[in-house]
User: Fold this.
Amino acid sequence: MRRRQRSLRALVTSLPILWLMTDERVVEDRLLRAVRRLPRGSGVVFRHYGLNEPERRALFERVRAVAVRRGLMLLLAGDEALALAWGADGSHGRSEGRAGRLFRSAPVHGRAELRVAQRQGADMIFLSPLFATRSHPGSKVLGVARFSALARQAKVPVMALGGVARRHGALIRALGAAGYGAIDSLSR
Assistant:
């Protein structure tokens, strides 16, 4: 168990603690500006699921160019094979068939999804929504107590997501998260 705790601590200290989640609501100019403003060592989860593949790939390449220059970790939402083919640092999403060559994060919204993500070998989870969020209006929030309980059950690093901003830094760490991801608070 001690070896596992040490390896988890090492992974947490090397991971970005600040993540920009991309979203179709954020126009390209604003998105690229937000990526350029991220501190070195931050991360980006490129989603943009609604674009057709050529448009999505072209925008990904523009984001990747900035990420490489800025020393950012870039995850592609989708399966590992696509992330590998596109030159991402890892993938984001649920995945049954994991080859394990790239880093992988998974979205988690409750206990059942936490168990699945861990069973499928996620290296990190985005636990959400902690608070109400504009990207998913009307979604039931986890709230502080439930978020904390789930974060403390996780065997991998947890990133808080959902209405989280820089001002919540001390709170999210107290709740058991290693960092946070955001859309609106990082792309305004």
User: Anything to note?
Assistant: The chain is about 40% helix and 20% strand.
